[in-house]
Amino acid sequence: MAATLVTSVPGFVTPEEHRIIVGSTPASFNDIPPVLRHKEESVSVTFEPSLDGFSEDDAKEGILYVLESVLIFMSKTGKGFQIEYPSITLHAVSRGDTPPSIYCQLDESSAKAMEMLVDPEAPKTNGNVKNPSADESDEEDENEEEETQEDMDMRVLNIVPSRVESLDPIFEALSLCAALHPDPPGSDDEEDFDEALIDAPDDTFEVFTGTEDEELSEVGRAALAHLESIIYDPFEKQQQREPEDPEVVAAGENGNAQPTKEVEEGDGKV
């Protein structure tokens, strides 16, 4: 499971304490406790589907710890859970719900993959061992199993602070910590994106020209500028490395670009 049950909170330090420890040049940086980026008291949580071993009473009230290493919720009942940041595939502020909350999607597929590595002889569906006598040739049953499996690969966590004004600080701390744990190279998302680019037909994408009184919004312009700054064009790099023809450069500076001598004589040279 993406959420692991715990009974205690690991040691941590504040950002100020972390700066002092790092400045003193410790013997090992690996021994430095994780940094606490945000602590929120009087928080309730909900899981959909529910988390085994974590009751509604456990979820009613507790303290949220946003550490750089993991996200931890410790209930007043003495039971809690922790979540690794790579398992949080999406987090957002949800103000439309009652009450407002931090909405998180948790990826359960990685945890199930580890279970299969431990016991490869026991294929599972939704956490239950398949019945060997089941008729797997039934296409309808297989489709239902696949749909249910996809649903079970994701768990929804809602973090509800007692103070609405705490939503933004919690979200910012989550974003900071999640950025410290990027997806490994060659992840499934990157492979799917590459395949989509390869398989996409030529007319899939439309180029925005700004005609017909249309223009990008401020957010759209910012997104476009960001995309242009990260796009790598190998042909542009190659052109920058290739030496320029002095005759063409000279002609361009005079404002009258003329073909080179080889092209005028038609001897096939470029």
Automatic annotation (TrEMBL):
<feature type="compositionally biased region" description="Basic and acidic residues">
    <location>
        <begin position="261"/>
        <end position="270"/>
    </location>
</feature>
<feature type="compositionally biased region" description="Acidic residues">
    <location>
        <begin position="135"/>
        <end position="151"/>
    </location>
</feature>
<feature type="compositionally biased region" description="Basic and acidic residues">
    <location>
        <begin position="234"/>
        <end position="243"/>
    </location>
</feature>
<dbReference type="Pfam" id="PF03517">
    <property type="entry name" value="Voldacs"/>
</dbReference>
<dbReference type="InterPro" id="IPR039924">
    <property type="entry name" value="ICln/Lot5/Saf5"/>
</dbReference>
<dbReference type="InterPro" id="IPR003521">
    <property type="entry name" value="ICln"/>
</dbReference>
<comment type="similarity">
    <text>Belongs to the pICln (TC 1.A.47) family.</text>
</comment>
<feature type="region of interest" description="Disordered">
    <location>
        <begin position="234"/>
        <end position="270"/>
    </location>
</feature>
<keyword id="KW-0963">Cytoplasm</keyword>
<dbReference type="InterPro" id="IPR011993">
    <property type="entry name" value="PH-like_dom_sf"/>
</dbReference>
<keyword id="KW-0539">Nucleus</keyword>
<protein>
    <submittedName>
        <fullName>Regulator of volume decrease after cellular swelling-domain-containing protein</fullName>
    </submittedName>
</protein>
<feature type="region of interest" description="Disordered">
    <location>
        <begin position="120"/>
        <end position="151"/>
    </location>
</feature>
